[in-house]
Amino acid sequence: MISKATVFQSASSTRPCWVDQCLDSVQDWSARQGFQYRFVDDTLFDSIDPALRTKIAARKPILADLARLDLLTHHLATGHEAAVAIWVDADTLCLDPNWTPDFARTGEFGGGFGEECWVQQDSRNQWRRFFTPHNAFMIFTRESVVLPFLRQLASSIIRRADADHIAPQMVGPKLLKALHSLSSFGLFPEAGALSPALLREIEVGHGPAIACYRGGHRPPLKMVNLCASLVSDDDSVKRVQQVMADPNSLECLVR
């Protein structure tokens, strides 16, 4: 076990109550693993170039994608004891506090990302699964060449993009997906995500979305991103709360 690791999280003070439970679960995981834990409030954005902050002030998720790279870069570059920096999104629930990530997966690039199996219907109403790296869970070593590159590239993309037409996830999952096709990052499928289609079926434990997910032969989830940006109505909040009340309900995904 690597003890010299620091786990970072950040969330707005106006977050939903269920996000606090997610934060508590990750903080508990950090303590059990012997990792340092740091929570950062909206000061997360202070390090971003003021010109970029002004340019996309209304696109806070994109700012957050850049700010987390700034935060981790600064931490690893300033002589802290921790040789590994881990980012976990605030809307991620830790399902197994005894899970120790395999840090060797960060490989030659010194960086690794969560991998989601995203299940949804296509334009012909056929169920499809998409395996995609995501930045709700990231691990970087002090020697990482990926982290400074991502930080520089994300800043450059935002600087050159039309502020009115910056696509969501442009410097987050979409960027990681494009780069992964070329470089093959280390991935952690144990740190996945639940699409709305899966979330709807978890309560009954079966359905076409779950069947599609199972066909991907995924390992059991140890952490799961609940995608707060998509939890926008009473029904979806209720479904999230049910998962949090009974995390064992997710076992239906690997039976």
Description:
- The structure is a single chain.
- The protein has helices at 17-33, 50-55, 60-77, 146-160, 173-183, 196-202, 208-214, 234-245, and strands at 5-10, 36-40, 84-88, 92-94, 111-121, 127-141, 186-188, 191-193, 223-225.
- By secondary structure, the chain is an alpha/beta fold.
- The protein has one domain (5-253): Spore Coat Polysaccharide Biosynthesis Protein SpsA, Chain A (Alpha-Beta Complex).
- A six-stranded mixed sheet has the order 2-1-3-6-5-7, sandwiched between helices. A three-stranded mixed sheet has the order 4-9-8.
- Helix 1 links the parallel strand 1 (5-10) and strand 2.
- Helix 6 (196-202) packs across helix 8 (234-245).
- It starts with a strand and ends in a 10-residue tail after the last helix.
- The model has no long low-confidence stretch (mean pLDDT 92).
For this entry, what is the oligomeric state of its chains?
A: single chain
Shape: globular
The poorly predicted ranges are none
CATH class: Alpha Beta
**N-to-C span:** 29 Å
Strand content: 15-25%
Bin the helical content: 25-40%
CATH homologous superfamily assignment: Spore Coat Polysaccharide Biosynthesis Protein SpsA, Chain A
DSSP summary, beta strand count: 9
Largest sheet: 6 strands, mixed
Task: Determine the mean pLDDT.
Answer: 92
| Largest beta sheet: strand ordering | 2-1-3-6-5-7
By secondary-structure content and strand pairing, the structural class works out as alpha/beta
User: How many domain units?
Assistant: 1
- Examine the secondary-structure arrangement and name the CATH architecture: Alpha-Beta Complex
